[in-house]
Amino acid sequence: MSKLYGILTLCLIAAVYTVHRSSDERQYRGKLHLSTKTSYPHHASEQLTLPSDVTLVKVQYVSRHGTRYPMLNDMARIRKLLGKIQVPAHWMPPDLIDDQNAGKLASTGHTDMHRLGQRALKRYRDLLNTTATTAIGFQSSESARSIDSAMAFMSALDLSSHLNVIPRANDTTLAMKYNCPLWSHYKQKMSADISSQVAIFDSLHAARIQSRLEQKLGALLPMGDIATLYLLCGYDLALYGNHGKWCSLIDEPMSFWLELRNDIKYSRVYGPDGADINRHIACSLVSEILDELEHGSALAIFKFGHAETVMFLSTLMHLDSALGSSDMAVTGAMSLSQARARGFQTSLLVPFSANIIFELYQDLSHRLLVRMLVNEQPIRLQQCGGSYLCPLSTLHTAFGNDVGCELAKVCSVLNL
Fold first, then answer.
1. Closest Cα to residue 261, out of 200, 173, 180?
2. Origin, by domain of life (predicted)?
């Protein structure tokens, strides 16, 4: 009987795969919400018309690394799930759970970062067309995937520039969480709140999600295993472009709610719903960026870090208010309309290769103006009255004491 059940399960999965394989890939990709494992959006970069009296003078570019393989703990989760369900053998590429690949930049990530570099070269050609080797800077955290991402990006620019790799022990800008005891302290304290909110979410949504998957998979899975299956869908799409295998089990409504379940954690560990330190831990990064824009000699600096680099910078700058609603915390009890309107949505903010760009312009009166882009799309900053162009002086004022901070003091736990 168990053997027959296994055969029927495989047939059911194969039928689902066949149906979805014939669907339009681009349309399918656009529907899924895959949190931090989302492929970089391959839309055409928006070229917003700017006033004719402004000139681009500098660029500061902060990027997450490209698509990577799962980390060791996620590989272990995937193996555990594979022991519980039966799927066609070709659904599980061996390299996806090869421990030697853990955390490494994938070929897809290399390609995406190279393409980002090509678009940067096209957009900022006048700035990058310089013979001064010190005019263009490149920085990376010491993580191999960030270094490899930087090198892929740099290869598209064809510049003889040096990559400055920041040792983790001294990194206050790209991998700052490793040098912030206060953040580590509050991360542990957030565990209870995260568990409570996830429990609320599961009480409202788990039965419906489990039922949908049981119809497709022929097995009733606990939410922890469903979260792993959702993770597999993200990696399968980002690494291999497969929308008809693991992702054939995840429809758009399911992916939407599972992303919200993930964002409960991310919004507290790295985002605006966590401890106050989350709003300040990127202070060295934003200070360095603003100082370079106002006083630095470099025309462009490109920095390569991690998902948390982008999330911490976004949290300090309140970018959730530019991406959607920031009126309420991300919770397990959010209604559909509240969840769709939320500004903190990881698939929009931190897909693989995510980036935040500061473009500095000068008008005819020599006033310095900043335009912000998130994943190459211009955004309106709340601090600047909803304008695309914001006086640099206004940003200095908006970020207050975070400008010129000493991260060691900001992150001290001595007073706890």
1. 200
2. Eukaryota
